[in-house]
Amino acid sequence: MRLHPLWILPLLAVGGTACVTVNIYFPAAAAEKVADKIVKDVYEAGAKPEAKTPPAPESAPAGRPLPPVTPQSALPRVEVLAQALLTQAFNAISSPAQAAEANLDIDSPAIRKLRQSLEARASQLRPLFDAGALGLSNNGLVTIRDATKLPLAQRAQANALVQAENSDRLALYQAIAVANGHPEWAGDIQKTFAGSWIKNAQSGWWVQGPDGSWQQK
């Protein structure tokens, strides 16, 4: 269907309004699912120190022709945008609850890089958690809970590990929010991960309660 130019501006206005109404509410259930997935992967990597080798990207067979240009891609860019916004408008009207519960995207290059960094460091942090030197804060970060559990020679290295870990965790929370088009969700994602880090922690590790007190799982 080819749109008449006179219809473009009203459709853009309708579509723009729909974009404001879609995904306004933070999808807590989807965020918890994502957090549990990432946290469990990190903890499993710490329990298995051997490095994970990511699969090589598939390459297209030589000589395969490029896909033909479809009628949609041949349309003027403004008309393509208008049709996309119109689709969003209908989706927002027909199923706003479904849009709010959509799965979160965790497959951006930034997220993949941060996950690899966290998994690579997990085997270094695990002995420090086991010894009781480190604890899981109630804000989704790691802290040195009891430095006396560490020899003096290891304290500087432990501080560096904690700093790098917290930097990656904060960057991950922000990257997930950005990848899903809502940077303002970073705080909610951090809170969700905070619960997941503690919930999935190994028995015997130290975790911080909502009131700031420390207890052993």
Model description:
With 217 residues, this protein is mainly α. The chain has a domain of 140 residues. It contains eight helices and four strands, in the order ααααααββααββ. A four-stranded mixed sheet has the order 2-1-3-4. β1 and β2 form a beta hairpin. α2 crosses α6. It is globular and about 50 Å long.
Integer-rounded radius of gyration: 23 Å
Q: Compute the average pLDDT.
A: 79
Q: What is the structural class?
A: mainly alpha
Low-pLDDT ranges:
14-23, 51-100
What is the helix/strand order?
A: HHHHHHEEHHEE
Shape: globular
Cross-sheet strand order for the largest sheet = 2-1-3-4
**Binned strand content:** 5-15%
Given the structure, what is the number of helices? Answer: 8
Output the keywords.
single chain; 217 residues; mainly alpha; 4-stranded mixed sheet; 4 strands
Q: Topology of this protein?
A:
Elements: H1 5-21, H2 28-47, H3 71-74, H4 77-94, H5 96-100, H6 109-130, E1 134-136, E2 142-144, H7 152-179, H8 186-199, E3 206-208, E4 214-216
Helix pairs in contact: 1-4, 2-6, 2-8, 6-7, 7-8
Overview in brief:
The protein is mostly helical and 217 residues long.
